[in-house]
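It is worth pausing here to work through a concrete case rather than discussing structure prediction in the abstract. The textbook approach is simple: state the sequence, then state the predicted structure, then interpret. We follow exactly that order.
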Amino acid sequence: MHFAADCLVGESVQNPLKYFNNNVKNSLELMEAMNDSGVRRIVFSSSAAVYGEPETIPIPEDHPCAPTNPYGETKLIFERVLEALGKARTVDFISLRYFNAAGADPDGELGEDHTPETHLIPIVLMAAMTGNPVPIFGTDYDTPDGTCIRDYIHVTDLAQAHILGLRQLEQGRRSGIYNLGNGNGVSVREVIDLAKRFTGRKIQTAESARRPGDPARLVASSEHIKRELGWVPKYPDLETIIGTAWNWHKQHPNGYKTHSA
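Step two, the predicted structure:
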């Protein structure tokens, strides 16, 4: 399973060479190592960023791919590498196009702790704990409240999809590309409002300009993976996603790294 990548949209616009080096060049070296070792199966972490500005909502897998940032370009390039290797019969692959992974382990053992933190839900929840404002990048998008709309998927459901993909490859089924989302578009302001209600705390915001490369709406159609692999998300609602994340952050107010031996 290939998860390794740089994944910040804004940084990819500012420093594209870093992204093409890591996400493409290093991934090609991984494929060479797999080939040398006789490893023929791979599950790849791709991204909804391959689509760019969508023409239809929700987005199906056969939607045209026109990334609006170098991060999305690097994911699409490597998908094309996998497709070429698949046609050459040297590799079988499953590519999973993540929408917005979020939430935490329901048992409270694992959660998000990035440095710096860039994902909206942990930023919002940390703001509820600290009183720091949540930055809103762009309030003039063509959406009902002017902020970006995204599709959030619980990390446990994401993990389950990887297991199903690996089993498909082990059973000799064909390669495939699948979206992973819940099909529910939620704006930045809606996430903040729901977090306020869930935590019972005030959450301040700080509005600023759009980030380069951010599409206005990204909402998945995941019917393909449900139909072919039998994927059924256990935590499809945003309340549960925020709830598991909130429980983890309350237990680890200084971050997971601080509490690990």
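Step three, interpretation. The first strand starts at residue 41 and ends at 47. The chain has one domain: 9-255.
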